[in-house]
Each structure stands twice: as structure tokens, then as C-alpha cells.
Amino acid sequence: MQAQSFCQDGKNEEALYQALQQVRGIGDADGVSVDRSSLYAAVFQQCQIAQQLTQLAGVDNVTLHKLFFDLNTISFFTLDDDHIAAMQQVLREQQLRGLYVVHLAQVLYERYLVARLFPQARAIRQEFYLPPLPEFNDVTYQGRGLLKFSHQQLILTGDDSEHRMIIVAAPGCHFSQNFLAWADEQPELRQWLATNALFLLQPSLSNDLESVQAMQQQYPWLTLAIAYKADEWPQIGRWGTPSFYFHIADQWQSFSGWPSDGNAAQFFALQRQLRVSD
């Protein structure tokens, strides 16, 4: 995909809104969902949001409200500390004006939780008397953290396994669904995936439990988990979906995408290499 440019004609909320529309309009290609985290991070930088935040006093209430939710869109995909802190800065400006912000505080609280920024999340919850949501931060685990379903709720567990294969997928990604439907029709492959593959979802999906549960119920043979923190998985070069990572001869080999006509030749070639390397 070619490098994208944003906010070339201005550095204000309207230009930011247009940039977000531009990102939404960027289509998926080659059977893989676009890595929107990188695109939204580029929007934050190129639209000079940090500079816009120094001029909030001159922004009207309606524009300020829009800016908060623009930043919420960006941080949903990036989970970047600075992007979420920018949301809080806008909320504080709204507070200074005597505007009602409890509903915005709830959004900010949830974003801090998903980013695993617990001190900030607790401070917002206590300040606005918000109902607590599961934090998981009191769980000590070894290796990487995985969120798995148990009795209709998420449980944080440790993971120090040397996975042979990792598939980055998403319930709302039709390319991921293409692959799952294809695999589900092949009993031998389905059994091999159940034994050897971890289906890994990105951390932001810990706020979308309904769709994750539906995915698990539709394909009960999946070993499915949500990454607790993205930076605990350095072997994942990109979180575009679906992406396939094979641990072959102590190295990770990967490819991305599953278009409507599949990508079976590449998949089976790497699977054979993985089996030979055992």
C-alpha cells in the first residue's frame, strides 16, 4: 500500500475529520485487512494534534466534542499512551467550561483499561464515580498475557509456550472468516490447527466480547485468545488480519491475506516446512 498523506490543507478539527474519513475509505487489499493502527498514528502526527491541543481555549464546544471522539477513534486502533492522554486533555477543557462530561469519562476509562494503563483508569473511575470494570492487573503471570474465555467471562492467564503457529485474526474481518470457513471444511486440517495454532486477537477486542464469543462458538475447535498487551508479541510484525506466522527452524516466517479464492498454496508450503523442521 502506498504511503498516505493527511491534513495537507489544514491542521484543524475539520481537516482531522476529513483525514479520518480518508482512512475509513482506504480499502483492504490482497485478502488482508489494512493495518489501521499505523494509518491512525500517521493521522495523529501529520494533523499535528499535539499542536492543536495547545489551542483548545479558542475552540467552540461543538468542535471540542467532535475532537474528543476523533481522538477516541484514533486511540481505539493505536492504544497509544499519548493519543489517550490527548482525549483526557480535551475532556479537562470541557470540564473547565462546566460541560457535562461523565459519559466522556466512561469512554476514556474504558480506553485506559484496554491500553492497560491502570493508574490512569482508576483515577478517572474514582473521580467520576464510574462502575468498575475488570482490570486483571492483580494477576501475576509468566511470559505473555492471554485473555481467554471461561464460563462466559475473560480470564487472564500466562503464556510462555513456544507456539508453532500464530494466526492473527479478527471476528469482524471477512478475510479471517474466509480462512476459517475454508479450514472448517477440512477435518484433518481443522484437527491440526486445533493442536498447533494459536488464534490471536488484538488487545482492543477485549471490549468486544460478544463478537469474540460468537467466533469461538462458531468454530469451537479454535484455540482462541486475546493478546493482553501487543508489545508482548514482538514476532507479530503487523496486526492486519488475517496474518499467518510459522515458527520454522527457530525463525518466524509469515504471510498475510486470505482473499475469496484463498491462499492455500502458500499456507500448505509453510505448513510442510513447519512439519519437516519438527
In short:
By secondary structure, the protein is α/β, with parallel strands linked by helices. The protein has helices at 13-24, 36-46, 49-52, 61-78, 81-96, 102-114, 118-128, 174-184, 187-196, 209-218, 264-277, and strands at 144-150, 153-159, 165-168, 197-201, 224-227, 243-248, 251-256.
Structure description:
This is Thioredoxin-like fold domain-containing protein. It comes from Shewanella electrica. This protein is an alpha/beta fold and 278 residues long. It has two domains: 13-128, no CATH class; 144-277, Glutaredoxin (3-Layer(aba) Sandwich). It is 47% helix and 14% strand. It has helices spanning 13-24, 36-46, 49-52, 61-78, 81-96, 102-114, 118-128, 174-184, 187-196, 209-218, 264-277; strands at 144-150, 153-159, 165-168, 197-201, 224-227, 243-248, 251-256. It has a seven-stranded mixed β-sheet. A hairpin with a 2-residue loop joins strand 1 and strand 2. Helix 1 (13-24) runs antiparallel to helix 2 and helix 2 runs antiparallel to helix 4 (61-78). The relative contact order is 0.11. The mean pLDDT is 90.
